[in-house]
Every structure is written in structure tokens, then in C-alpha cells.
Amino acid sequence: MERTLRHALLLVGLTSLLACAGVKPIDLATEDPSSLPEDAAILVLEIDTEVRIGTLEISGVAATNHVVAKDLKEGKHLLFVSLRPGQYSWRMLKRYLGGTEYHWRLRREHDRMGFRVERGLLNYPGVLRVRRARYDRWLEIRNLNHAAQTRARLAREFPELLEKFPIRYTGEDRDEFLERYEAALEMQVERNMP
After folding, report:
1. Bridge pairing between strands 41-49 and 121-124
2. pTM
3. I need a surface site. Which of 33, 167, 169, 190 has the fewest CB within 10 A?
4. pLDDT, tens digit, 9 for 90 and up, residues 78-126
5. What is the number of other CB atoms lying within 10 angstroms of the CB of residue 70?
6. C-beta separation of 70 from 102 below 8 A
7. Which of 166, 167, 121, 119 is nearest to 145 (CA)?
8. Phi, psi of 126 (to 5 degrees)
9. Closest by CA position to 127, among listed 139, 117, 141
10. Which of 63, 76, 78, 62 is CA-nearest to residue 27?
11. Alpha-carbon distance 64 to 80, whole Å?
């Protein structure tokens, strides 16, 4: 109940902020996955943070910047955003510390921060992991491929979403695990059919 309320409040705030940017949060607590169009381009945002995040931005299609998450508390977050297909990268993280706003530019060329978004898929760019570094004002930010764990979580929490849209890792490194895993599941289902 608390998780659902927290997600609902986050999405209410994000909806007005993101609507003008062509980015639409998807609230699976209230929105039926079967109502989503077959060609939707859905970004699966998984964020694991040790610090409170003010805003998280991506940059991409037509060199535009989009806020995809706002006011995230410490902890693990799983969010869904619908946006235009294309190439994107994590752009900037803003954090407030002692009343001061700090900005971290997420450099794509050094930290594997790029990803693509395609129609008809759950596009998983990896988990964005944010950790405190040696000093309070420093952060270690990494993008990690935890596709198998994320797929298992989606199967537990949002099975109807996985039935409608296959999940694919869309980060910079090629990873065919999810495609092969889902093909093996389909073969097993076919073998068990009379």
C-alpha cells in the first residue's frame, strides 16, 4: 500500500512536468497494460541509490533533454516511461545537499551511459546505481546490466506487462540473454502443449 501511494504521488508530480516534453510516466497501479498500444516505446527505469535524487535527466531524440525521474528517496526504484523511439543517454543527476544543488553530468563516452528505445518493447538500459563516494559531495554513478534480475522482478510484480511486451537490454553493450531466455521459455511451453 505504501509503495503504491509513493508511486502514485511520484507519478502525479512527474505527469505535469513530463507531458510537455513528450515523456509520459506509466502508472501500472492504475493503468492496465492491455490498454497500452502494441507499438508503445517503454523505458524501464531501474534506479538503486544511496542518496536522495532531485532530478534525473536523459538526452536524446532531436538533442532534447527529458526529466525522467524526480524526488527519488534513497532505495531501489522501478519506473516505466513512454517516450519516442531513438538513441538516448543518461545526461544529468541533480542532488540537494544541505540546501545546495549539485549537478553530476553523466558522461556517455566513458561510462557506458547510452541506450536505445524501440517500439513494442520494454527497453531496459540497465540499473543506474548511485553510491556515496569518499566525500559526501562525491558520487559514484554506474550503469549496470542486471537484466535477468529485472526480468524476474517484472515476472513477479507485473506479469501482464511481460505477456504483452518482451523485455530487451538496450544498453551500449550487446546482450542477447533475454532474447534467448524468452525463446527457451516459448519452446518449453510448446513442448508441454498437447
Report:
1. parallel
2. 0.78
3. 190
4. 999 998 999 998 989 999 888 888 888 886 555 678 899 999 999 999 9
5. 17
6. no
7. 167
8. 115, 170
9. 141
10. 78
11. 19
